[in-house]
Amino acid sequence: MGSRQTPAPIKITGPGPKYLESEGGFMRILISALLAVITALPAFAQEIPYTEITGTVLSVKQMEFPRARLSLKITKSANPSILEIRGESAVINVENRLLKKNGNVDFTNRQNTGAIAAYYLLQGDEINANLINGAVRGFQGLIYGITRTAGNTESSGSARLNDLKLTLATDKESYAEGEPVAITLSVTNSGTEARTLKFASGQQYDFVVSKDGREVWKWSAGKYFAQSLVSRVIGPGEVLRFKQVWNQEKTGGGRANPGEYCITGMLILVEGKRPSVGPLTIKIVPKA
After folding, report:
1. Whether the predicted pLDDT of 182 surpasses 90
2. Which has the closest alpha carbon to 247: 193, 178, 197, 185?
3. Where would you tag: which of 77, 110, 215, 243 has the fewest CB atoms within 10 A of its CB?
4. How far apart are the first and last CA of the chain?
C-alpha cells in the first residue's frame, strides 16, 4: 500500500500573518470571517433607518388581513430631503411593515400594533408614522408605528364617504359567552342627490372581528359570491343596511374567550376600494 502523504503547506508571498502559510490557518480565517458576518446580521436588521413623518391618507387598499397599501401625501418629515426629492406633491405609495415569526405575522410583537392600524385607516385620515424609505416590492417604502391624529371619522362607530355616512352598530355593548352579537352596517345618504354604489361582486360588504390586532372572525371567510358587478342606488335621506350575526365562533374553529373585541365593517366596492368604519369595541363576559 502506498504511504499517506501530508499535503504541502500553502505559501503566501508578501507580508502577512504567518498562520496564513498553512491550509488550516487559511480555513480558520475564512470561518471566523463568516461567523462574524452571521453574528452581525440580527443587529443590522434591527437598525434599519426610518424617518418620522406626518401625512394625509389619499387611498387605502386592504389586502389579506392585516396587510394594507396606502397612498400618502407627506406634509411633514423629520428628513427634509424626502419632501425636497418628491416636490410639492410629496405623494408616496407604501405598505405597512409587518414583522413575521416562522413565516407568519407575529401578532404578539408590539411593533406590529402600529402597523396593523393601517388596515383600518380611511381616506382623509391624518397620521403620524415611521417611514422606511426605499423601493420595496414595487412600492416606495414601508410604514409602521402609525398614530391617527385626525380624519373624517366622526366616532368609532361612524365615518363619511362624501355625502354617504357609514355607521356601525351592535345591539348591545356587553355579551355573555356564546350570546349572538347582532351587527349592522348602515349607509345613509345625507346629501340632496341620489348616490350609486358599485360593488365588485355579489359580496357587497364584510365584517371583521379582531382581538389584540389578530383577526378572530370574518363574515366572508369560506363563502363564495357571484362574480358580477352590482349597483345600488341610495336616494337622498335613504338608508341601506347590511346585517349579520356573530355567534362568537372563530373562523378557524372554537369559541371566542371572554375579553374585549373590536368589530370593523366595510363596503366592497369596485377597483379594490373598501371604505371601512370602526373599530367598535364590545365585551364578552363569562357566564354567571
Report:
1. yes
2. 178
3. 110
4. 88
Residues in contact with 89: Cβ distance below 8 Å, sequence separation at least 6, in sequence order:
73
Rounded Cα gap, residues 237 and 189, in angstroms = 5
Asked if residue 5 has pLDDT above 70, the reply is no
Q: Which of 208, 239, 247, 238 is nearest to 66 (CA)?
A: 208
Q: What pLDDT shows up at residue 14?
A: 47
Tell me what the pLDDT averaged over the chain comes to: 75
Residue with cell 341610495: 234
Q: What value does the mean pLDDT take over residues 16-28?
A: 51
Q: Domains, the chain, ranges and CATH?
A: 51-150 (2.40.50.140), 155-285 (2.60.40.2360)
pLDDT tens-digit map of 110-147: 777 778 778 777 767 778 888 887 644 445 788 888 87
pTM beyond 0.70, yes or no: no
